[in-house]
């Protein structure tokens, strides 16, 4: 805040005060104080999350950023814990985004079950570091168990397979990462290392680098193929891994926004017959694209990968947990053919920010990213940090393992099914309204649509020129409405740009709705459409 720092008279940074913050609450008074703080956090925020239906308070970013220009650390303490907590609850939280509101339907970030806060508090209190056993012990063991549970949902191997690998210190069924981006990076790192692995006279790409690898393999370029709807984390991986992000090649879509298999095969042939020597390191299937929630034909992709000896990665950051629904798991048919799979914990596992996971069908695949250090992760130890991009890492497995116990696969299935079915109802509602157009039919719980007012619809005809003009107008309208609705602060849908399929290949602006909050129901979604209609009528 802008006010000059007036050091609080009683507050001094001395050894005695410092020690008090580290000592555990041994007497009753100390315990009571700490309990009071926890209560303040849980109920203070709980009230905020319940009462603030709006997305944010109506304070502009400019006003807020003007209040946060203080760049000096004060020498003595400014505030006590109680005051800090009160300040956060009263001043900070109301200006954060209430992602828990059922009217907040624009992003993959939403309400979480309240027990997640308790579980997260436990991991903070234990402060385990799963980089190695010496700082985590049982938490490393729990991580291996929960990884095996999810691996089993994806790959459905035999009981014997899991008995052999669940606690095997030499093999890994996967790993936790900080998010989906690092899970994808880990998967592609391993794909690169195995596709350009050690051979006669060559120690492998991870040791010798990409230039030496290209020489050893007699190639000039390596590529990864994914649909146009690939997440931008894949491009980052292309950059980081020395593949070059131009070489993360986009394949066109079919009419249902899935990777076009014919175009993919064409591309593979073109690469094989090219005068340049090009190696395909991986083909990626998306199970729940970020923009439209669609699922690529995983079985077909898996078959193409095995015919061509290419690593098959499935980015199921969003859609992975759908496997827990008996009713809808068939949508991910073929995922078991994947060599690696990304799933985010903070998306449809409803874990607090942030948690990702990556799984490998072959429990030895992670060997290609083995790293040791004498001060940590010595050879022969079972430390999880030996095969992990991250070093220090929190024990997120405890949160997931506990959540799975509390919810059961059926609890998660109920959430997943609610999202998918509400999205279908919402699509019907959009189709029934003359001023809206459904753009992508939901496969999972994500759909896109746009406002397409009757008066413009009447002008629509076969002429490409007319269509282009109307699309341009609609783009403007949809951008404005999305912004005004967000600024009004009652509800929120997001916005993205997709290629139009029905018409010529233009970009059209669409509104995007993600239904993952179990409190978001069709009535709320109708209200959101009503509000958009109203904004249109009032302002345009
Ligand atoms: C969210 C998402 C990612 C990236 O995950 P982060 O956790 O945001 O890093 C990757 N792929 C898909 C399909 C996603 O939806």
From TrEMBL:
Keyword Amino-acid biosynthesis found: no
Source organism of the structure: uncultured Desulfobacterium sp
PANTHER family, A to Z: CYSTEINE SULFINIC ACID DECARBOXYLASE, GLUTAMATE DECARBOXYLASE-RELATED
GO molecular function: carboxy-lyase activity; pyridoxal phosphate binding
Family named by the database record: Belongs to the group II decarboxylase family.
Protein name from the UniProt record: Pyridoxal-dependent aspartate 1-decarboxylase
GO biological processes: carboxylic acid metabolic process
A Pfam entry, by short name: Pyridoxal_deC
GO CC aspect terms: cytoplasm
Record-listed N6-(pyridoxal phosphate)lysine modification sites: 347
Highest taxon listed in the record's lineage: Bacteria
């Amino acid at each position: 805040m802008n006010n000059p720092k007036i050091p609080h008279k009683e507050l001094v940074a001395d050894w005695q005060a410092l020690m008090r913050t580290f000592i555990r609450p041994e007497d009753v008074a100390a315990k009571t104080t700490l309990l009071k703080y926890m209560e303040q956090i849980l109920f203070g925020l709980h009230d905020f999350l319940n009462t603030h239906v709006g997305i944010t308070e109506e304070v502009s970013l400019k006003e807020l950023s003007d209040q946060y220009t203080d760049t000096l650390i004060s020498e003595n303490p400014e505030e006590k814990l109680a005051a800090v907590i009160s300040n956060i609850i009263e001043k900070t939280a109301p200006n954060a985004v209430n992602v828990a509101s059922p009217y907040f339907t624009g992003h993959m970030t939403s309400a979480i079950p309240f027990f997640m806060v308790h579980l997260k508090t436990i991991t903070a209190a234990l402060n385990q570091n799963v980089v190695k056993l010496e700082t985590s012990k049982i938490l490393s063991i729990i991580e291996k168990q929960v990884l095996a549970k999810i691996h089993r949902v994806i790959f459905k191997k035999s009981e014997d397979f899991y008995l052999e690998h669940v606690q095997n210190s030499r093999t890994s069924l996967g790993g936790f990462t900080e998010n989906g981006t690092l899970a994808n990076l880990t998967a592609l790192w391993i794909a690169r290392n195995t596709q350009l692995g050690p051979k006669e006279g060559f120690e492998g790409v991870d040791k010798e680098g990409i230039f030496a690898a290209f020489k050893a393999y007699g190639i000039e370029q390596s590529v990864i193929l994914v649909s146009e709807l690939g997440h931008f984390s894949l491009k980052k991986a292309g950059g980081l891994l020395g593949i070059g992000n131009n070489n993360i090649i986009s394949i066109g879509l079919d009419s249902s926004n899935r990777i076009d298999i014919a175009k993919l095969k064409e591309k593979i042939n073109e690469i094989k017959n090219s005068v340049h020597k090009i190696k395909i390191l991986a083909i990626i299937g998306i199970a729940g694209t970020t923009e439209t929630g669609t699922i690529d034909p995983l079985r077909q992709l898996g078959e193409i990968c095995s015919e061509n000896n290419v690593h098959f990665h499935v980015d199921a950051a969003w859609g992975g947990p759908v496997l827990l629904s008996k009713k809808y798991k068939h949508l991910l048919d073929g995922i078991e053919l994947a060599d690696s799979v990304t799933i985010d914990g903070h998306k449809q596992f409803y874990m607090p920010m942030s948690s990702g996971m990556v799984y490998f069908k072959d429990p030895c695949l992670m060997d290609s990213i083995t790293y040791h250090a004498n001060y940590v992760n010595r050879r022969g130890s079972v430390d999880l940090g030996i095969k992990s991009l991250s070093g220090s890492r929190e024990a997120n497995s405890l949160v997931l393992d506990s959540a799975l116990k509390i919810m059961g696969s059926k609890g998660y299935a109920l959430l997943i099914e609610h999202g998918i079915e509400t999205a279908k109802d919402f699509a019907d509602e959009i189709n029934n309204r003359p001023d809206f157009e459904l753009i992508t039919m939901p496969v999972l719980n994500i759909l896109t649509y746009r406002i397409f007012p009757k008066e413009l619809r009447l002008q629509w005809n076969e002429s490409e020129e007319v269509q282009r003009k109307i699309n341009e107008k609609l783009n403007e309208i949809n951008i404005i409405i999305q912004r005004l609705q967000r600024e009004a602060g009652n509800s929120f849908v997001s916005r993205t740009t997709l290629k139009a399929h029905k018409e010529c290949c233009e970009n059209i602006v669409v509104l995007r709705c993600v239904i993952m909050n179990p409190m978001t129901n069709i009535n709320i979604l109708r209200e959101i459409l009503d509000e958009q209609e109203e904004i249109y009528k009032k302002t345009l």
